[in-house]
Amino acid sequence: MMYLHVFSPIGALCINVLAQVCYCRFISNKHLLKSLFFGFFCGISGLILAEVWYAGKSSLAVFQNVPLILINISSYCALGYCYFHFVNLSETARRIRIISELENAKAGLSAQEILERYNAQEIIEKRLGRLLKSNQVICTNGRYYVGKPFMLFASKVVVFLKLFILGKKSEFDE
Question: Which of 45, 149, 156, 163 has a CA between 20 and 30 Å from the CA of residue 60?
Answer without folding.
Answer: 45
